[in-house]
Amino acid sequence: MNYLLAFIAFNVIVIVHELGHFLAAKKFGIKVNEFSLFIGPKLWSTQRGETTYSIRLFPIMAYVKMEGEEEASANERAFNNKPRYARALTAFGGPLANLILAAVLLTIVFSIQGYSTTEISEIDKDSPASAAGLQEGDKITGYGGKGVYLPLDLMQFLYISKGRTADIEYVRGNVKYSRPIKPEIIPASTAYRLGVGFSTSTGADSNVIQTVTPGYPAEKAGLLAGDRITGVNDMKVVDRSGLVSYLEKNKDKEVSITALRDNAEINVNIVPKEDKIPEQYILGLAFTARNGNLWDSFRESAIFTYSIVRSVGYSIVWLVTKQVEFREMRGPIGIVSEIGIAVQQGPNLMAKLIYLLQMTGLMSIAIGATNLIPFPMLDGNRLVLIGIEAIRKKPLKPEKEAFISMVGFVLIILLAVYAAYNDILRLITG
User: Fold this and answer.
1) How confident is the model over 72-98, as pLDDT tens digits?
2) What's the mean pLDDT in 263-267?
3) Is 18 a catalytic residue?
4) Is 56 helix (H, G, I), strand (E, B) or coil?
5) Given this model, what pLDDT does residue 35 score?
6) pLDDT for 323-376, tens place per residue?
7) What is the distance between the alpha carbons of residues 377 and 379, in angstroms, rounded to a whole number?
8) Does domain 115-188+278-290 have CATH number 2.40.50.140?
9) Eight-state DSSP code of residue 149
């Protein structure tokens, strides 16, 4: 059921994308020949005005077929005969629809469960953050010359910087500061894990489970998101660090875990799983989470959407410069798998729904932003070609556009196959 919901969510993202193109085309008087749900042989269709609405055999994806989009047409309402601004806005309509969908979904999520800020809630003693003079209440606004809008931004920049000293920018009161900071580098190591994730690394709630990793011992033992781990064997657990330290010493020996669930105590026996942990970069701080009204939640969803769109752009640069490996790419299989895993984390129907909305919003941003990349076969490429046409005062020759599209199609297929290979490998190996 979880993966069925994930599959539906992925299709909703794609359908909304195509609906954005469709509505923009209609707005600018472009003739739309067909709007199809799914791909493959046609199962059903109906004619409404000049447009055929159809459902096809394979229940994935969707597409809009506009007159004059793929080849020149003499029809005055054809895509190729419309003004540049109309073509550009029609091309932009798909990604825009994805971003709007994401903002709506994330507004709902943030209204229910709150959102993370870049305001510091805690600083570890003798940490890089403490040494740099940061204090609780400071709001981080930049790292390494790049703006920080979410805690996720800081995590990405730390990963890319590989522990090098960088300037951290923050606001205290109404005054802006910038100071150098040297992250603590934790070498790659072997860890013994239960397969649970926590919402924070420090503090009173750092022993409350936020996620349970599928296939790991904690899931098999029946631990759920929301459980508070209070003991391991005969030791009392008051925070995450105590649990982690104990597991490091215990290694792969079976442990008895005590947890609170709905004020009732549960006990399970678990054999930790050995994991290889990559090198990590730590500042030693935690961020404040807030609950806001509907307007606050919408504002935060817009900031979140912008930040993720920006990170997609950064990711392309990091891929080209080999700061991120191509094996980390994900395709449709991986996207559905990620949504499915997220849905599994919920201990009840409401939690599952929130996870589903959150992951669908995130993936909708990623798909919308990716389509803006100036790569053949993507909306971004069409926008670039329209821009070139505006500069040249005339369009490229059809054969040149066809050649660019052909090369792009081959590259897209190769990337899709490679991404699918990575997705399947992850599903098999975990």
Assistant:
1) 888 999 998 999 999 999 999 999 999
2) 92
3) yes
4) strand
5) 96
6) 766 555 554 444 444 555 555 555 667 777 887 888 888 888 888 888 888 877
7) 7
8) no
9) -
What percent of the chain is modeled with pLDDT above 70?
84
Cα–Cα separations (whole angstroms), residue 152 to 13, 48, 265, 284, 337? 23, 46, 34, 15, 21
Cα gap 178→292, rounded to integer Å: 29
Looking at the chain, the domain(s) classified CATH 2.30.42.10 span 115-188+278-290, 191-276
- Coil, strand or helix: which one is 251? coil
Name every residue whose Cβ is closer than 8 Å to that of residue 114 and which is 6 or more positions away in sequence: 289, 290, 291, 292
Q: Is the pLDDT of residue 430 over 50?
A: no
Which amino acid is present at 46?
T
Residue 386 CA to its chain's centroid (Å) = 29
Count the helices and strands in the chain (H runs, E runs).
11, 18
Q: What is the pLDDT of residue 157?
A: 92
Q: How many angstroms separate the CA atoms of 191 and 245, rounded?
A: 10
Beta carbons of 142 and 158 less than 8 angstroms apart: no
Instruction: Write down the CATH number for the domain with range 191-276.
Output: 2.30.42.10
The angle that helices 84-113 and 294-320 make with each other, rounded to 10 degrees, is: 120
Q: Which residues contact 13 (CB under 8 A, 6 or more apart)?
A: 98, 101, 360, 363, 364, 367
Burial of 408 (0-12, 13-18, 19+ CB in 10 A): middle
Whether 425 shows a pLDDT value over 50: the answer reads: no
What is the secondary structure of 133-146 as a DSSP string? T--TT-EEEEETTE
Q: Which of 18, 122, 169, 401 is catalytic?
A: 18
| C-alpha to C-alpha distance for 356 and 80, rounded to whole angstroms | 39
Give the helix, strand, coil percentages of the chain, each rounded to 5.
45, 25, 25
The share of the chain scoring above pLDDT 90, in percent, equals: 45
* pLDDT for residue 139 is more than 50: yes
User: In angstroms, rounded to a whole number, what is the distance separating the alpha carbons of residues 150 and 300?
Assistant: 10
